[in-house]
């Protein structure tokens, strides 16, 4: 039996893939991969093991990264983070967190513009993902105090 909510999320996913294509971004679904936006190739990789709903949420977030790259002011602000050999000091970790937060907000705006209802589960996933950056900052801070 097909869950109707999965059908809706699959439709949203198809629409987002088309939206991404129109933005010049290819979306790749791969089992077990790390979700990411490749700035060099302008591709987004999405872990196909996620639920269709979470694939939509992550794709929105990764599109947020694409929009950051395309926005000249934001691109300048976060350009340091794109460099391959950037030092992962506390300042850069905080800058990474800031970029992640902005990418989630932009993704949320894209979703709203496309008529995708983002409920509490969007906020839960966003919080879980951002927590990894917060934990990284906190652990760095603790090490600096020792």
In total, the number of strands is 3
Give the proportion of residues in helices: 55-70%
Mean pLDDT: 88
User: What is the string of helix and strand elements?
Assistant: HEEEHHHH
Dominant shape: globular
Instruction: List the strand order in the largest sheet.
Output: 1-3-2
Low-confidence stretches: 142-146
Number of domains: 1
Q: What is the terminal separation in angstroms?
A: 56 Å
CATH class group: Mainly Alpha
User: Based on helices, strands and strand pairing, what is the structural class?
Assistant: mainly alpha
> What does the main sheet amount to?
3 strands, mixed
Strand content: 5-15%
Discrete helix count: 5
Evaluate the radius of gyration.
Answer: 16 Å
- Per CATH, what is the topology? Arc Repressor Mutant, subunit A
What CATH architecture would you give? Orthogonal Bundle
Would you kindly provide a written description of the structure presented here, covering whatever features stand out?
The structure is a single chain. This protein is mainly alpha-helical and 146 residues long. The chain has one domain (4-145): Arc Repressor Mutant, subunit A (Orthogonal Bundle). It is 68% helix and 9% strand. It has five helices and three strands; from the N terminus they run αβββαααα. It has helices at 4-22, 52-70, 72-82, 90-113, 120-145, and strands spanning 26-30, 36-38, 43-47. It has a three-stranded mixed beta sheet with strand order 1-3-2, with helices on one face. A hairpin with a 4-residue loop joins strand 2 (36-38) and strand 3. Helix 1 packs parallel to helix 2 (52-70) and helix 2 packs across helix 4. The chain is globular. The protein starts with a helix and ends with a helix. Residues 142-146 have low confidence and may be disordered.
């Amino acid at each position: 039996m097909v869950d109707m909510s999965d059908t809706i999320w699959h439709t949203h996913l198809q629409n987002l893939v088309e939206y991404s294509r129109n933005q010049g971004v290819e979306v790749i679904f791969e089992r077990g991969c790390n979700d990411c936006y490749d700035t060099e190739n302008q591709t987004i990789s999405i872990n196909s093991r996620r639920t269709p709903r979470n694939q939509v949420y992550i794709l929105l977030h990764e599109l947020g990264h694409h929009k950051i790259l395309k926005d000249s002011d934001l691109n300048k602000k976060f350009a340091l983070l794109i460099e391959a050999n950037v030092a992962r000091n506390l300042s850069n970790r905080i800058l990474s967190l800031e970029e992640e937060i902005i990418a989630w907000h932009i993704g949320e705006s894209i979703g709203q513009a496309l008529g995708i209802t983002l409920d509490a589960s969007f906020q839960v996933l966003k919080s879980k993902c951002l927590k990894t950056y917060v934990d990284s900052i906190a652990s760095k801070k603790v090490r600096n105090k020792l």
